[in-house]
């Protein structure tokens, strides 16, 4: 009897897992980009002098060629991984619902609005992140529709 999980424990675990499975990873990427662009990372010691143009890695391939990785490219790499995670999460979840899809669309809309209305967001990195977010939302919607069609068995 003591080994069986109680309903209270399951709901508490579900609330904790919401921040991992329920919130789109693009929400966290958008939040990090906004904080970095608006200068709020200056409150964190190691990130005080970090901007989108800060060089993260320089690799000398040959005397005339260098591989340079800046924070803006790091955002694109993280965005690509986030897109993979979100699509995999939507495709494998047993109870993937409309709330996750709705949140993904809201994040994509925020990306679009910020791109057109805010100066610091009008660059190629932010545009590509917004497109990734829109692909995430659309992919989740398509996966959800296909799952609903299988459940209803529409031909």
Q: What features would you describe in this structure?
A:
With 155 residues, this protein is mainly α. The chain has helices at 7-22, 25-38, 71-92, 98-117, 124-152, and strands at residues 55-62, 65-70. The chain has a two-stranded antiparallel ribbon. The longest helix is centred in the C-terminal third of the chain and has 29 residues, at 124-152. The protein is elongated, with a radius of gyration of 20 Å.
Largest sheet: 2 strands, antiparallel
Strand content of the residues, in percent? 5-15%
What's the mean pLDDT score? Answer: 79
What portion of residues is helical? 55-70%
Strand order of the largest sheet: 1-2
Rg from C-alpha positions? 20 Å
Estimate the global geometry from the Cα principal axes: elongated
Provide key terms for this protein.
single chain; mainly alpha; 5 helices
At a glance:
By secondary structure, this protein is mostly helical.
Question: Secondary-structure map with pairings?
Answer:
Blueprint: H1 7-22, H2 25-38, E1 55-62, E2 65-70, H3 71-92, H4 98-117, H5 124-152
Antiparallel strand pairs: 1-2
